[in-house]
């Protein structure tokens, strides 16, 4: 297996300290704090470990409370809120340095059949026809701020291919809408719970940034503070994150120093596998 993906699986494998108490390690992805998707994915792994039977996560709602320190472990405490005949609910609190940094509620359901419909998949260029995201950044790396350059140069366990080619240095104001293909860099085990946890992890990439597209702000601008406040996710159908998935994101609103973005995730055969929503701090800095 690719070493980057192997390391991600290591990060997503938590140490069980007690029946409902887990500990995870972090990785530096170039940001000033622990990547929010990592905490989201680890919290879901902890919750899943306490659910018996065939029930699988179908929704989660989370809040980011404090910045995480990637030089220290994170402890996840799971509350078994409810175990019903078909559904189970879990609450998870992530603790670091004696303080809550994150909390999550997740609901799990036994497989059932019922009505089935979905919105159609957008008609966009296929991933095989697009270059990797690094292609858009490589030529301008030297002109970007050091912290942004470092973040872009760190290799990741996922590939990203942008349908709409960005203008990194001189972005223009445009619609709050974009499409990004992504997949893990190597094959993964056939474990639906693992694929859903990894989908939660990667869903935090490229979502909130959609809310700044109408404002023509350069990527990584020092005129802007951005941070996730919350994250919600619904899993509609089985998914494999080691096969190409399309992330179709849009931002209906930004106001009060907050931006709101939502996403639909499709498989290449057009199935809507998951939906996301996120609100985040988008605070302009006036110099």
- Rg calc: 19 Å
Number of DSSP strand runs = 12
Q: How far apart are the termini?
A: 47 Å
Q: In CATH terms, what is the architecture?
A: Beta Barrel
Poorly predicted ranges (pLDDT <50, ≥5 residues)? none
- What strand order characterises the main sheet? 1-2-4-5-6-3-9-12-11-10-8-7
Order of helices and strands: HEEHEEEEHHEEHEEEE
Number of continuous helical runs: 5
| Average pLDDT reading | 94
Describe the global form.
globular
CATH fold annotation: Porin
Q: Please, what is the CATH homologous superfamily? A: Acyl-CoA thioesterase, double hotdog domain
Supply the helix-strand structural class. alpha+beta
- How many structural domains does the protein architecture include? 1
The helix fraction, in percent, is 10-25%
CATH class: Mainly Beta
Strand-residue fraction? 35-45%
């Amino acid at each position: 297996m690719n070493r980057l993906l192997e390391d991600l699986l290591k990060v997503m494998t938590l140490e069980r300290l007690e029946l409902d108490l887990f500990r995870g390690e972090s990785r530096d992805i170039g940001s000033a704090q622990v990547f929010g998707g990592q905490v989201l994915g680890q919290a879901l792994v902890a919750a899943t470990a306490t659910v018996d039977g065939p029930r699988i996560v179908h929704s989660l709602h989370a809040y980011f409370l404090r910045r995480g320190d990637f030089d220290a472990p994170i402890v996840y405490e799971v509350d078994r809120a409810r175990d019903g005949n078909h559904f189970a609910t879990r609450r998870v609190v992530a603790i670091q340095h004696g303080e809550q940094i994150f909390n999550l509620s997740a609901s799990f359901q036994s497989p059932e059949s019922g009505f089935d419909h979905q919105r159609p998949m957008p008609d966009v260029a296929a991933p095989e026809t697009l270059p990797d995201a690094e292609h858009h950044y490589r030529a301008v790396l030297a002109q970007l701020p050091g912290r942004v350059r470092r973040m872009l140069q760190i290799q990741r366990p996922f590939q990203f291919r942008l349908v709409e080619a960005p203008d990194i240095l001189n972005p223009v104001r445009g619609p709050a809408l974009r499409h990004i293909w992504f997949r893990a860099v190597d094959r993964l085990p056939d474990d639906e719970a693992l694929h859903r946890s990894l989908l939660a992890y990667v869903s935090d990439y490229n979502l909130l940034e959609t809310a700044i597209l109408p404002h023509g702000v350069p990527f990584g601008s020092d005129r802007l503070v951005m941070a996730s406040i919350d994250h919600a996710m619904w899993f509609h159908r089985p998914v494999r994150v080691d096969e190409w998935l399309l992330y179709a994101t849009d931002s209906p609103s930004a106001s009060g120093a907050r931006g709101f973005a939502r996403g639909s995730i499709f498989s290449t055969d057009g199935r809507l596998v998951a939906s996301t929503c996120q609100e985040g701090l988008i605070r302009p800095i006036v110099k």
